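Just wondering, does anyone understand these tokens?
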Amino acid sequence: MKILFAFSEVRPFAASGGLSDVAGSLPKAIRSRQHACRVVMPLYGSIKQEYRSLMRLIAEFQVPLSWRNQYCGVYEATYNGVKYYFLDNEYYFKRDDKQLYGYYDDGERFAFFSKAVLEMLKYIDYQPDIIHCNDWETALIPVFLNVSYRGNDEIYDRIKTVFTIHNIQYQGQFPNDISWDVLGIPWYSASILDYNGCVNYMKGAIETSDMVTTVSPTYAQEIMNPWFSYGLDPLLRERQYKLAGIINGIDMTVNNPETDPAMYHNFSVKTLENRRENKRELQKAMGLEQNDDMLIGIVTRLASHKGLDLVKYIFDEMMSKGGIQVVVLGSGDRDLEDFFQNMERKYPGKVKTTIGFIPDLAQKIYGSVDLFLMPSKSEPCGLAQMIALRYGAIPLVRETGGLKDTIQDLGGENGNGFTFQSYNAHDMLGSILRAKEYYHTENWQKAVEHAMYCDFSWGKSAMEYIKLYKKVLGA
């Protein structure tokens, strides 16, 4: 099979979040299973010269956007065995502040990108069987394919499309006039994009793609519920026959405690004494008391939907129980930043808060803490809980989205963490206290060993995607 992945960001070229991690890992995993996959993304001005030096210009053409004709250059590069196409238009993608998103004309920028992906196929030596699109930035590819390209050129007639929703909160919603002024959608097809009085790019992809996926089986069910869907649940219930959930994976080479240079001491399942030394080193570096208290780690964006309002509500009660330390790394809402900094002052030697995101420190936390807390209100997939397992930190999560699909409670068979179900602060506290009690038993070591053996590599996810591609192609 030939699969063309369309992403708005790909690590290491350009990254703003978890989407780039998926983009940097999934195509490589698919290719390693003998399928010809390639990736296309915008050529942002912020891409470093070390990667630009790998690129060569292979095509130039004009992209029609309603009454506009915009230049597009196609650059090609091979990195880690995968071939990438970078679509160049400096007006759209060379912005001075180097952010990837958040501009007044984002609707036009990514409409251009989506149209350019389809135009590019006339000029390259690769004709995909499937175009796999991701999130609202590429959601117009299946729309344009169906409305403007099928029936006009045979290279488009056999192409199938898969669209993945990584986070349904961000749908690409714009005023109605963008439909004719930018997209050039004929009036008789405008309803494909119309939703609740505006143009909705994600809605268009759900309507026109051959298959819609999300990043975990539970999230696929959740987004048909108004609590999670941000208004798209009626449409998703109508289209659930083509909706599937496949859990993301993690890069097991990058996330490897045996070789990770961020570790104070590298370790494996067979050398867990080194992990205990990591805990001592982290306690020392963070100004925490060096003892055997259960050390809880939080590495996240500081936002209420990450469940931190629950943590805030029970924090004093939790600390009053004794035998607990907390280390926090993240940034976000000012009130939460202030709260965790205040807790550090209130509980010296017991709590340490670092505002910001420091990848090296994040890895050290994974490889040192006893319990990794992730009580999200919603979590499409989540990678942190899988990384925590890889590094022997036992996750404590709320049963939602990918957290529910990857973490089973240690109270049952094959458990690899602690869970709670309802979005309730004292239910979470109850699970923390259960974990604390478990921590002081001989079973904790076995739990750590089992956690590190859990396989959430991209290989498993890749096989699920390959099955889905074959289903789409009728193979």
About this structure: The domain at 2-249+459-473 is CATH 3.40.50.2000 (Rossmann fold). The chain has a mean pLDDT of 96. The chain has two domains: 2-249+459-473, 269-455. The first strand starts at residue 2 and ends at 6.
